Every structure is written in structure tokens, then in C-alpha cells.
Amino acid sequence: MFLKNYILNEGYNKKFFLSGGLKSKIISKNKFYHDLSFGAGTLILGHQSKIYLKAISEIKKNYISSLASPNYQALKFAKLLNKIDNKQKKFIFCNSGTEAVTKSLRIIRAITKKELIISVTGSWHGSVDKLLFQYNTNNEIKALSDGLTKNDKKNIKFIEYNNIKKSKSVLDRYKKKISCIIIEPIQGCLPSYDSLEYLKFLIEYSNDNKIIIIFDEIISGLRVNSSNVQKYIKKHADITILGKCFGGGFPIGIIALSEKITKILESKKLNIFYGGTYSANSLAMHIGYRTTQYILKNKNILKNIEKKSIIFQNELNKYFLQFNIDAKVYRFFSILRIVFSKKNIKDRVQRDFLEKKNYKKINQFKKYLLAKNIYYPSSGVIFFSDKTTFANLKEITLSFKQAAYKILKKI
Length: 411
Known about the structure:
Layout: H1 2-7, E1 20-22, E2 25-28, E3 31-35, H2 38-41, H3 50-61, H4 72-84, E4 88-94, H5 97-112, E5 116-120, E6 133-135, E7 141-143, H6 150-154, E8 156-159, H7 164-174, E9 178-183, H8 196-208, E10 212-216, H9 229-233, E11 239-243, E12 253-258, H10 259-268, H11 282-297, H12 300-322, E13 328-332, E14 335-339, H13 348-355, H14 359-371, E15 374-375, E16 381-382, H15 390-406
Parallel strand pairs: 3-15, 5-8, 5-9, 9-10, 10-11
Antiparallel strand pairs: 1-2, 2-3, 4-12, 6-7, 11-12, 13-14, 14-16
Helix pairs in contact: 3-11, 4-11, 12-15, 14-15
């Protein structure tokens, strides 16, 4: 059975199927678990939030239907997104982050007539053939899936995340052939404030050498000061990929184009296909608009989630240090990850190398938490929501300490 085979890839929770969620918890076999995923970061307001339910009722009341045509819901949403960051001038709505990345690469090939993509180690851009590769510790480009073409592998090069000197060397070597640079600025594999100068360098290098740069802010979009990483560092990319929490629980991907890219597309009159049956569908547009609008009007929501994230990070890191536990919590605003090594990690390649020997213990750690009714995301990226109470947080943190002392202390 396909589902059975699929779930075997989920690691520690092979037989764990979900049926629903309410507020801060998810449901499996009529049992409630503390959720640390919230739809992989999509549900800032928690499960079945009042805004979500109100928007659903408005869909019925106002006869909003899936139209497969331009609609006012998408127009309203685009105007709201422009207010969040006025450097983003045009928006193309998709059904997922993967679709948004795929279409962004199509736009860039149409503009540049070039094929070579510079990807940054540790970045994740969904299930996009041209980017389903990883740079490993042996300095090899490794395919993450069967079924990819030889051209896909030939047309991608990697630069080392948060290493300006090495990145510049590679960029200088290939800069005349580069179609674009693509990066997940704050990476789920290692969310940290340490990379901000590196991000500024990449944007400045791209501008100086007339290279198009894409910031994939699927995770960080909206979470960072109710805006994005670019606004935070006061440097902007040419194309931005948004999604997750902008959809309020509905599937969404957004391509945000800068004024520069918009003008190029208009002046060259390029024939680029963007469409799809459910692209910019009015249902997702309405849910996304209502959710985003509510979060922007109530900015204390994000501040409170960040406060919970800081408490979680500080409490655990203090405990890990006290009991010499080989782990450390990394954080950027409300994006969290436990790295199972106490060494200062600089990128995913180093993280994977150091964690590899501890995979069995890591899975035992996660199983222990599941037995304590805490769902640890298979991706490893931890999120809290508006519905995660401080009492919830205290209970979760205590269970993490117990799991660490019982299992990780032996590493």
C-alpha cells in the first residue's frame, strides 16, 4: 500500500497518522498531542483558529468559489502584500512553494537565457527537480531523488552558506554563466542570526555583477517583524518566494517581483506561462488575506510567539550546559531547531556530519517525547503558535529536559 510505504520514510514516527487539530494540539486515534509543527509553520494562529473559521463562513456567505479566473480576492491580497514590503511590486500566486520556485526559475531563464544556478548549501526549496541536489562533506553534488536529468546536475553549483570568502571565489569563477543565485536566507536546518552579513554580501555582489538573486522566504516571510528578512537587513532581493503562514492553512506559494524585474518583464514583453487551475484561487486568496490581515493588525501575536521561543531556547540551552548534554537550540525570531551537538555549527554540512553518529539516540529522544504526548516534527524545525500557552510551554520544556537527561546525556 502506498501510504504504508510512504510513512516508512518518516523516521521515528512510522505508524503515526494524524486526523485533525484543535488550538495548540493535534489528534491521532482520538488522542491529543502537543504540536511543535503547526502545519510545518503555516498555522501561526493555531489549529481551527477563530479567524480561519470566520473566513470559512465568509466563503459560504459571500458565494466565494473556485473560479480559475482573475478575481478580486487575489487583487485585495496583492495590495496587502505590497503594504508589508513596498519593494515587492508584482505578485504571482501559486499553489505551493515548489510551484513558486519552479516558475521563478522559468522567469529567470526567460530573462537571462542562461542555465547555471548557484544554490547555497543548507537551503531547501521544495520538490524542484533543478534544485534537488545536496553538497556533501566529500565536496560532491549528490542527487536527493532518482529521476533527475544529467542537465539538472550539470547546471547547478553550490556556494558555502555563511562563508563570504569561499562563496566569492565560486561566484567570481562562474559569474558570466550564472542565471541566478537562490538562497533560503534563514534556514530551517540552522536558524540563526549569524548569517546576516553574509546575506548582505550576496545581495550586494548580485547587484554589482548584475546577477538575479532569489530569496526563498517561505519560512521566514511574515514571521520576521511582521515582514521578512530583507526588510530586517535593509537589503532586497530581485525575487522573493513566500508561502506557508500567508495561506493561513490553505495551500499557497507567492512569487514577489521587485520593481527592477517587473520593468524587465514589461520592456522585453516575454511570453512566460504562469497559470494553473488553482493558481490564485479565490478560496485560498480569501483565507490568506484574512489571516495575514489579522496578524498585521495584531502584531503582539508574533511578539508573544517569539517570547515563547526565547524562553524555550534559553531554558534548554541552560539545562544542556548544566548537565553536559551534547545539544544546542538555535533560533531566529520564532524559528527553532535543536542541533544534537554542543559545538558551534556554521552550516548544514557540518551539522549533518556531527549528528550522523547519533541518529539512533536522536530517534529515541523523539520517541520519548511522543510517548509524553509531544509531536516532534520530522523536519526538525520547531514552531509554536498563538494558541501555545505558557502552561503548555512549561510542560513541553520539562519533557524535553527529561528526554535529554535520560537519553542524550549518554551520547
